[in-house]
Design brief:
- By secondary structure, this protein is an alpha/beta fold.
- The protein is about 40% helix and about 20% strand.
- It has one domain: NAD(P)-binding Rossmann-like Domain (Rossmann fold).
- It has an eight-stranded mixed beta sheet, with helices on both faces.
- Bound molecules: NADP nicotinamide-adenine-dinucleotide phosphate.
């Protein structure tokens, strides 16, 4: 598969590096050519510009702060020129609190889909690059599960393959509308993790939940 990644930070490194190791062709594009070249050299990805990454291959991962995604795509061309393209949304629009900076309206993934017309799949936002860069991301309970939210079967299948190729266990968690729930859940988890709590402690085995 061929994947374009916008950004040269921690998520670009973790996911891009993993996909290169799995045999995929990855082009990373950042706003700083030196950082882009360094990331490409250390991961085996191809270096490029933001514009090249945005339109490269089968799917685009904007590994950018949420607020930077539409401006970055808009700097490449009209945002609706990404209509139909597979866009993997890993962003967390989360501010201190934590609060969702998207407020009560549509969340990040739905906003990106509405603005671009892209086939957006929400994925990879719920844990940190330290997890995605493990080889493989497997713990005592097995591979890390990756919830995917999206409306397009082909896009969900593609992102599912990319997650499985990292050594994770992807599953379709619902339509894109459910990305709002995943984004809110992740904000809640961030609050627990940053206050030193283990969210797993609040989750009994499903069999214990009764009818
Ligand atoms: N870190 C996490 O734990 C985590 C987990 C899951 C999801 N996410 C999400 O993944 C996305 C990327 O996070 P990250 O941890 O990789 O962040 P990061 O390490 O800070 O990297 C951010 C990247 O975005 C670029 N960037 C920032 N503003 C930009 C702009 N206006 N135009 C173009 N490029 C811009 C930065 O470029 P420069 O280097 O030039 O500044 C950098 O390459 C975010 O949406 C975040 O919420 C993060």
């Amino acid at each position: 598969m061929r994947v374009g990644i916008l950004g040269t930070g921690a998520m670009a490194r973790a996911l891009g590096g993993g996909w290169v190791r799995a045999g995929h062709e990855v082009l990373v594009g950042g706003r700083d050519p030196e950082r882009t070249a360094a990331l490409a050299a250390s991961t085996g990805a191809r270096p490029g510009t933001l514009a090249e990454a945005a339109r490269f291959g089968d799917a685009t991962l904007p590994a950018l702060p949420y607020d930077a995604v539409l401006p970055a795509l808009g700097s490449v061309g009209p945002v609706d020129s990404f209509g139909g393209r597979i866009l993997i949304d890993c962003t967390n629009a989360v501010g201190p609190g934590p609060v969702l900076t998207t407020g009560e309206g549509p969340g990040a993934a739905r906003t990106l889909a509405a603005a671009t017309g892209a086939r957006v799949v929400k994925a990879f936002n719920h844990v940190t690059p330290a997890v995605w860069s493990r080889t493989p991301p497997v713990f005592a309970d097995g591979p890390v599960a990756v919830p995917l939210c999206g409306d397009d079967e082909e896009a969900l299948a593609l992102v599912s393959t990319l997650a499985a190729d990292l050594g994770c266990a992807p599953f379709v968690a619902g339509p894109l509308a459910h990305a709002d729930l995943l984004e809110a859940t992740t904000a809640f988890l961030i609050g627990l993790w940053t206050s030193g709590r283990d969210p797993r402690a609040m989750l009994p085995p499903p069999a214990a939940l009764g009818g």
